[in-house]
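Long-time lurker. I teach an intro course on protein structure, and each term I like to show students one example going from raw sequence to a predicted 3D structure in token notation. This year I'd like something fresh instead of my usual example. Would anyone be willing to generate the tokens for the chain below so I can use it in lecture? Attribution to the forum is fine with me.
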Amino acid sequence: GATLVESGGEMVQAGGSLRLSCAASGRTFSSYGMGWFRQAPRKEREFVAAISWSGGSTYYADSVKGRFTISRDNAKNTVYLQMNSLKPEDTAVYYCAADLTGAGTHSYEYDYWGQGTPVTVSS
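-- Reply from a regular --
Happy to contribute to a lecture. Here you go:
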């Protein structure tokens, strides 16, 4: 299987920026799509962004479009989520996930998950 390890989450003030990283190991990273999801307290996990295996296609939730950017470096087996203009409602645990068949926007499409990294945005 694949092992995914997220990093970069921390507390930041509203309007600030963070870059999350997700390091993958165990499978051919460059052959599968990657996604970021988040789960806020007392809420369901929701889709944030996804990127195809080549990086040529990206998808975003409406709530983050224009503020977040997903990217990947296949040479480093790493996917990133650059988060700008952060808002308190972005507070959540952020998870990266691997989709062996594409770059889906639903959690059930993903095969492997990391443990998550917490992001707190203070107002």
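Some talking points for your students: Residues 6 and 22 are 4 Å apart (CA to CA). The chain has no helices and eleven strands.
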